[in-house]
Write a structure and sequence with these properties.
This protein is α+β, with helices and mostly antiparallel strands. It contains 24 helices and twelve strands. It starts with a helix and ends in a 5-residue tail after the last helix.
Length: 534
């Protein structure tokens, strides 16, 4: 967006752009979210920043009226596959808190000086400033949403000392932590309690509301629920809970969605987490539900394609489920390729028996997903199916356990391809699926996926899942596509991953035709060998 596009957005107080850029006003010395209710400043007094960290570094303080830190994040970090986008995904996951700037730079293949120069040029702030802004945002959330002790808030947000915490809150918000806590709406704070019985750091249980851009399609909960592994995960049409292994300790969390409540809140309940892991947990939960997406922009692009328009109208705000553990997701993808979701869940349930027991069991969740080392050592004896697939899973687990295969949120699509494709049993479908769910790649289309093809057929046939007719699905009388439409949905780029989600959903809820064994083999066999249009 150029200056005047952004200026029109703030003049309209358009909430869609909250978190995507920040408005700094020279005459007041503050910065705001685009939807701030204050009077629109004169254009000559306005500077726009890509990040709140850039506004901090320029000497501006956060607006006390619109609270610009209390907004969803920008979807740009998934759309962008450059160094800036990859760095922000890692910073949000807490890499700087754990490994420092040097650790972040080494993961990206740059020196710390080069990385600082790139981020300052692209985002207006260096890695330390960006991490500091993230800590301030987490601290504000905890201060206004819980009754945690101030010292616990400081360390949970990633600050190295209470003094640093106090100074940063004062510089960013022009308020003390106690005063900032006082801005919470009376009765809205939910008590969080810290328990110090586990060394070396405290664990905490708390409840938070997760900000997101509307509309929100709760179908993401159905997606997670049908794939939930008993003992590790539990899901319904409006909730999801699981155990999770984080850098410092095990954690347990649950998310619920209430479409009938004012504001349609998404509520995160953390049963237990090491305070040092809290920023990472919050970031991964947001990635899991794709809460930083811009659904209006995505739906607008998808609805322009007549094949998808009925599905978008029926299910606005489709989300692309992410991954809370990249290594786990790869194992799940390898086991699930070329078999049904139900069969994959059965196989993964068997495999989970080699995982360790969680230290924070509750509500039937008592086990952790097996580590790569556990799968390499014991998992092969628990898996059923073709020997080739079992050997491939074991080889991938062994490579991850030995450190020979290292991938995660900081990769781009090309990087994932170079790391994963050389592995036995790994094909373009697996890489595309991992890219969608681990790095949030928005433009993956799994052209040879059987469910994608079934979804296309369901929408063409005017299935109730698509709520459309053959004509509304963009088909000619004989079912063929008009010349202007391409089979790989390039018309909706760069949002083809969301088109894939709509097609998967259409396939999942449409009546399944009876198929012969030969037809099933024809649909499934090309999934690994043919190259998807990514």
């Amino acid at each position: 967006m150029d200056f005047w596009q952004r200026y029109r957005a703030i003049d309209a107080r358009d909430t869609r752009f909250d978190g995507q850029f920040y408005t700094a006003v020279r005459t007041t010395g503050i910065y705001c979210r685009p939807s701030c209710p204050a009077r629109t400043p004169k254009a000559e007094n306005v500077t726009f920043y890509e990040t709140s960290a850039a506004a901090h570094d320029a000497g501006y303080r956060a607006c006390k009226r619109c609270l610009p830190e209390a907004v969803p994040g920008t979807p740009a970090w998934n759309i962008r596959s450059d160094i800036a986008g990859r760095a922000m995904r890692l910073i949000n996951d807490g890499v700087i808190n754990r490994d420092g700037v040097e650790g972040l730079a080494s993961r990206l293949g740059y020196s710390s000086r080069q990385l600082n120069r790139i981020l300052t040029h692209e985002l207006g702030a260096g890695p330390l400033s960006l991490a500091r802004a993230g800590r301030a945002q987490t601290a504000r959330t905890l201060l206004v949403s819980t009754q945690m002790k101030l010292a616990d808030v400081a360390f949970a947000a990633g600050f190295s000392s209470v003094r640093q915490f106090n100074e940063t809150i004062g510089e960013v918000f022009a308020m003390t932590p106690t005063a900032l806590r006082g801005t919470a709406v009376r009765g809205s704070a939910v008590r969080g309690t810290a328990s110090h019985h586990r060394a070396p750091a405290a664990t905490t249980a708390l409840t938070l509301n997760l900000p997101y851009r509307q509309p929100f399609d709760p179908g993401v909960f159905d997606f997670l629920a049908v794939r939930a592994i008993p003992g590790i995960e539990a899901g319904t049409a409006s909730s999801y809970a699981r155990t999770l292994r984080l850098p410092h300790a095990d954690a347990r969390f649950g998310i619920t969605y209430d479409a009938g409540a004012p504001g349609r809140p998404l509520v995160l309940t953390i049963g237990a987490v090491d305070l040092r892991d809290l920023p990472s947990l919050l970031s991964r939960v947001r990635r899991l539900l794709d809460l930083d997406a811009d659904p209006v922009a995505i739906d607008g692009a998808l609805a322009a394609d007549p094949r998808l328009a009925p599905a978008v109208k029926a299910f606005p705000g489709m989300r692309m489920p992410g991954a809370v553990d990249p290594q786990e997701l790869l194992i799940r993808a390898m086991i699930g390729q070329q078999i049904t979701v139900a069969a994959a869940r059965t196989a993964l349930t068997q495999l989970s028996a080699c995982g360790s027991e969680s230290l924070v069991p509750a509500d039937g969740l008592h086990r952790l997903f097996p580590t790569a080392a556990e799968i390499a050592d014991q998992g092969f004896g628990l898996l059923r199916g073709p020997r080739r697939r079992i050997d491939s899973v074991r080889a991938a687990a062994g490579a991850m356990a030995a450190g020979d295969l290292d991938f995660g949120y900081g990769d781009d699509l090309a990087g994932l391809q170079s790391k994963l494709l050389p592995l036995p049993g790994m094909g373009p479908w697996t890489v595309g699926y991992v890219a969608m769910r681990v790095i949030g790649a928005p433009d993956v289309f799994l052209a040879n996926d059987a469910a994608v093809r079934n979804g296309i057929l369901a929408l063409r046939a005017g299935d109730p899942a698509g709520a459309g007719s053959r004509e509304s699905a963009g088909c000619l009388e004989d079912g063929r596509l008009p010349g202007k439409l391409t089979p790989d949905f390039t018309e909706v780029s760069p949002w083809r991953s969301y088109a894939t989600m709509h097609l998967w959903r259409a396939a999942a809820i449409s009546p399944k035709p009876r198929q012969t064994r030969q037809t099933q083999q024809t649909q499934q066999a090309p999934v690994l060998s043919a190259v998807p249009q990514i």
